[in-house]
Amino acid sequence: MKIAVFSACVYDQEFLEKYNTNHQLVFFEQALNFDNVALTKAFDAVCLFVNDRADEKVLSALVENGVKLILLRCAGFNNVDLEAAAKLGIKILRVPAYSPEAVAEHAMAMILTLNRKTHKAYNRVRDGNFSLASLMGFNLNHAKVALIGTGNIGKALYKILKGFGCSILAYDPYPDDTLRAEGLVYASLKEVLCDAEIVSLHCPLTDQSFHVINEQTLKYFKKGAMLINTSRGALINTADVINSLKSGQLGYLGLDVYEQESALFFHDLSEKVIQDDLIARLISFPNVLITSHQGFFTREAMQQIAEITFSNADAFANGKPMPNEIKP
Ligand SMILES: NC(=O)c1ccc[n+]([C@@H]2O[C@H](COP(=O)([O-])OP(=O)(O)OC[C@H]3O[C@@H](n4cnc5c(N)ncnc54)[C@H](O)[C@@H]3O)[C@@H](O)[C@H]2O)c1
C-alpha cells in the first residue's frame, strides 16, 4: 500500500523504515489537517499520531482522495471522529497497547523529579551551588497515590508504586478484578481525590472524562497534593489548575500532555515568542514540570508501535481479521 505518514519526525522515519513490511511510505513533517489534506491524493492509507486531526471535514476529503484506511500509531483516538469515519466507510486501526511500562515509568520519573527536585539539584551543582535549601522532598514509602484509570498503563504504574511501598487507591468505572484481588482499593472519584497525596491520570479522553480535573474536583484534593497527567491534556481544565497552583491548593503538577499541545509539542520553538499564555504561566511555576508528550518515547515502545502499525496495514491489505479496528 502507499501510505502517507503525517507528523513524521526523524525517529518515526527511522523506526517505520526499519520495520516496514513492504509498503511504500512517504513522510510529511506536518500534522494532518484540512489545509494540507490535498497531500493525501493517490494514497491508500494515512498513518497518524496524537496531534493529527481527523474530524468529519478531513475524513470526507481523505475519502474523496481515495484513502481507505487510517493507521493510528498511538493508543488514544480522541482526535478521530469515529462516527463520521463509520458513515464514510473509512477504516481506523490503532496500536491499542505498546509498552505501557514506557508511560508508567515516565509518570514515575515525573513524581520523583517533582518530589526530590533532581532537575534543580543538577543545575545548582553545575553552578557550584551545593546548598540544600528548598530541595526537601517527602518519602514515597507509605505515601497515598490515587490512580484514575487502571488499564494497561495504570496497572504498570501500580506495580512500580507497590515497589516504592506506596499505599495505592484507584477510581475506574470498570475496576480490574485481578488488581482488586491483589489488594488495590477502588473508591469513588471524590473519595480517591480527597484521600491521596499524589493523583495520576491514566484514563482515556472521552465526553465523560473531559476536564475531569476542574475547579470543583480540585477542591477535593488534599492541600499541597501532586497531580500527574500523562494521558491527554483535555482531562484537565488548565485555567482551573493554574488558579489552584496560585492558591497553593495544588502543590505540584507534572504534565506530559497539554490541551493545546498540537501548536507546541514536538517542535523547536526556542527562537519564537510563545503565544499561548496558559502554558507560559505554567512554565513559570517552580513546582510544575512539563515534558512534551514523551511518555511513550522508548526504543521498545517505538519498535512495538512500528511492528503493530505494519501488522495492522498487512491485515487490511490482505483481507485478514483486524482486531485493532476501532468503531464508534
Ligand atoms: N503520554 C504518552 O505518551 C501516552 C502514551 C500512550 C497512551 N497515553 C494515554 O494514556 C491513556 C491510558 O492508556 P492505557 O493504555 O492504560 O488505556 P486502557 O484502555 O488500557 O485503560 C484505560 C482505563 O481507563 C478507564 N476509564 C475509562 N473512562 C474512565 C474515567 N472517566 N475515569 C477513570 N477511568 C476511566 C478504563 O475503564 C480503563 O481501565 C490513553 O487513553 C492515552 O490517552 C499517553
TrEMBL record:
Keywords tagged on the record: NAD, Oxidoreductase
Molecular function GO labels: D-lactate dehydrogenase (NAD+) activity; NAD binding
Domain of life, source organism: Bacteria
InterPro entries: D-isomer_2_OHA_DH_cat_dom, D-isomer_DH_CS, D-isomer_DH_NAD-bd, D-LDH-like, NAD(P)-bd_dom_sf
Domain D-isomer specific 2-hydroxyacid dehydrogenase NAD-binding: 108-295
Cited Pfam families: 2-Hacid_dh, 2-Hacid_dh_C
D-isomer specific 2-hydroxyacid dehydrogenase catalytic domain span: 3-326
Family assignment from sequence similarity: Belongs to the D-isomer specific 2-hydroxyacid dehydrogenase family.
Protein name: D-lactate dehydrogenase
Species whose genome carries this gene: Pedobacter rhizosphaerae
